[in-house]
Specification:
mainly alpha, Mitochondrial carrier fold, membrane, transport, transmembrane helix, transmembrane, mitochondrion inner membrane
Length: about 280
């Protein structure tokens, strides 16, 4: 490995490790709120999907996929932001670089995130019964729909995550820049962790609220078992939600989603920034 490539790898190792730590922390800590949000969005309804009982169902799937998914996102995001996008399009503004980099990061992360999300949401709503383990839910999903069923909802997840990132990360970077300017700092990287956390919370909650309709449709698609015989395409799912429940259904779960991602954004990006700073003295 050359000196240049070694330095490049070292530069990516920090966001990889920090992203894994941040993603795991948030997913485990705020998991019950995510469960309540998913049950509110399910077609069967909140009570039929489990209500307030068993809010940690599906945690095993998240524990497995959280770290690699978050690590893959931040590694891709940082590499694109620092190198690929600026070199390919040197005239692009900083917000555009952040938006494109975040979108590419989300696409990469979804390769890991979607299968674990399918298993997780089916456990959260007792799709396979109230006592099904993560391993059993994975087995049943494959038996009923093949391995491709683990990527059921991949398209709508991308359609949700890309707009989310287009809103969240440029806003996050902008808020940090403004905070650094007010404190007369040379770089937003010098901000105290709690300031970065507040910026992350504002950016996350804003993006979460605005993308709730896409999240509702994603949940419906992932919870549809292929053996049910229902079509699970994106246009059909949007039409079905509107036809059966009206426009208000697209905002189901908006409050827990906004709270979860708002608080999660503070912890996620706060832990990420702290980890980056701490890893700087190690890596």
């Amino acid at each position: 490995m050359t000196t240049e490539s070694s330095l490049q790898f070292t530069g990516l190792l920090k966001p990889m490790v920090a992203g894994a730590m941040a993603g795991t922390t948030v997913d485990l800590f705020f998991y019950p709120i995510d469960t309540l949000k998913t049950r509110l969005q399910s077609r069967e309804g909140f009570i039929a999907s489990g209500g307030f009982k068993g809010v940690y169902k599906g945690l095993g799937s998240v524990a497995v996929g959280s770290a690699p998914g978050a690590a893959l996102f931040f590694t891709t995001y940082e590499y694109c932001k620092r190198s690929i996008i600026p070199n390919a399009f040197p005239s692009l503004s900083s917000p555009m670089v952040h938006m494109i980099s975040a979108s590419l990061g989300e696409v990469a992360a979804c390769l890991v995130r979607v299968p674990t999300e399918v298993v997780k949401q089916r456990q959260q709503t007792a799709t396979y019964g109230s006592s099904t383990s993560s391993a059993k839910a994975l087995q049943l999903a494959i038996q009923q729909g093949g391995f491709k069923s683990l990527y059921q909802g991949f398209g709508i997840t991308i359609l949700r995550e890309v707009p989310f990132s287009l809103l969240q990360f440029p806003l996050y970077e902008k808020l940090k820049s403004q905070a650094a300017e007010r404190r007369s700092l040379l770089s937003s990287d010098q901000l105290p962790p709690h300031v970065s956390a507040i910026c992350g919370s504002i950016a996350g909650s804003t993006a979460a609220a605005l993308t709730t309709p896409l999240d509702v449709v994603k949940t419906r698609i992932m919870l549809t078992k292929e053996c049910d015989g229902a079509r699970i395409g994106i246009p059909e799912s949007f039409a079905r939600v509107y036809r059966e429940e009206g426009w208000s259904a697209f905002w189901k779960g908006v409050i827990p989603r906004t709270i979860w991602i708002g608080l999660g954004g503070a912890v996620f990006l706060g832990v990420y920034e702290v980890s980056i700073q701490q890893l700087g003295s190690i890596i």
